[in-house]
Amino acid sequence: MLMAHPAVLRDLIDEYEALAAVGADKANSAQARQHLDDVTYTLCVSTGTRDIDAALAAARHQLPGARPLDDSMLSSS
C-alpha cells in the first residue's frame, strides 16, 4: 500500500482538528461542512481506513516519533 508523506498527514490532522474545534460539522455554512467532509475523506483514503477515528489513529501512528511497538490501538477486551 502506498503511504502518504508524514508532512501531508500532519497537515491533514491539523486541518481536521482545526475544523472540528470550530464546529464545522454543525456550522450553518455548507462550505465549512464540505471542507470538513473533504479533509475527512482525504485522511481516510490516505490511511486506508473507512472512518475518521481510525484514520486519525493510523495517521498519527505513521508520523515520525510514533512508537513502532505501541499497541495502544489494540483493544484489550
From TrEMBL:
<dbReference type="Pfam" id="PF17196">
    <property type="entry name" value="DUF5133"/>
</dbReference>
<protein>
    <submittedName>
        <fullName>DUF5133 domain-containing protein</fullName>
    </submittedName>
</protein>
<dbReference type="InterPro" id="IPR033457">
    <property type="entry name" value="DUF5133"/>
</dbReference>
